Amino acid sequence: ATHLAFSGDGHWVAAGNWKGQGVCTWNAHTGSLVTNLPVGMNVAVAFSPQSRWLVTGAPQEYRFWKVGSWEIAHAVPRQHAGDMCGSMVFSPDGRTLALVRGRNSDLKLIEADTGREWATLEAGEPHCFSPRGNWLVTSEPNGLLRLWDLRRIRQQLATLKLDWDAPLGGSEPPFASEKPLRIVVDLEQRSAGE
Predict the structure, then answer these.
(1) In angstroms, rounded to a whole number, what is the distance separating the alpha carbons of residues 155 and 49?
(2) Is the predicted pLDDT of residue 34 greater than 70, yes or no?
(3) Helix, strand, coil share of the chain (percent; to 5)
(4) Of 39, 48, 25, whose CA–CA distance to 110 is shortest?
(5) Count of beta carbons in the 10 Å neighbourhood of residue 180
């Protein structure tokens, strides 16, 4: 097991794999194995915050499993992912899942309940949403981090009648600066004399 997830209600633990088979789910209170979901190799796992969904991200597709019955509700296919497991993160309200469709491909914002695509961002791997879901942090293969203002993006899309039908998150405290922040980390090791 290389990918682990704990359900938001504290009832379930799921383990994905690298070069293994299946996704095991345990009852967190008793330690008993509940199910071994039939997915292939190289699978990441994520529970929705309200513990409604367990999503498995395999090289072929993301599957949305109903927590408790462990039935597949829907799936989102991946493209050109090779053998890489899926990278995904839920918004705090559990309505949106940010996921990568393929290797070095665009990031998709998906409606968790239906699998419907809401938007595509030219971004790398998703890492986390802000507490109200208005901001999304992603990273690029070159180490660059991006902070996406989803509230502002959606407001601009709404003027074009292209916004999706989920409520906007409440306003969050503003950042000190509206200018893009650029952080450079120098990993070069220096000798003690410098």
Answers:
(1) 25
(2) yes
(3) 5, 40, 55
(4) 48
(5) 7
106 vs 99: CA distance, rounded Å: 9
Count of Cβ atoms closer than 10 Å to residue 171 Cβ: 9
Q: Which amino acid is at 129?
A: F
Q: Six-digit token pair at 36?
A: 């071994």
- Determine the Cα–Cα distance for residues 12 and 17; give it in Å rounded to an integer: 17
Burial label for 126, CB within 10 Å (0-12, 13-18, 19+), is buried
Residue 8 one-letter amino acid: G
Q: What pLDDT score does 84 carry?
A: 75
**Tokens, residue 81:** 């992912």
The pLDDT tens digits for 40-97 are: 778 899 999 999 999 998 888 899 999 999 999 999 988 766 767 778 999 999 999 9
Helix or strand or coil: residue 150?
helix
SS3 (DSSP) at 136: strand
pLDDT higher than threshold 60 for residue 98: yes
For the cut 60, the answer to whether the pLDDT of residue 115 exceeds it is yes
Contact status, residue 112 vs residue 98, Cβ threshold 8 Å = no
Query: Could you tell me the two tokens for 65?
Result: 């499993």
The structure tokens listed for 135 are 């901001």
Could you give the strand order of the β-sheet that contains 61-66, starting from the edge strand earlier in sequence? 44-47, 53-57, 61-66, 72-77
The reported pLDDT for the residue numbered 159 is 86
How many Å apart are CA 191 and CA 100, to the nearest integer?
A: 40
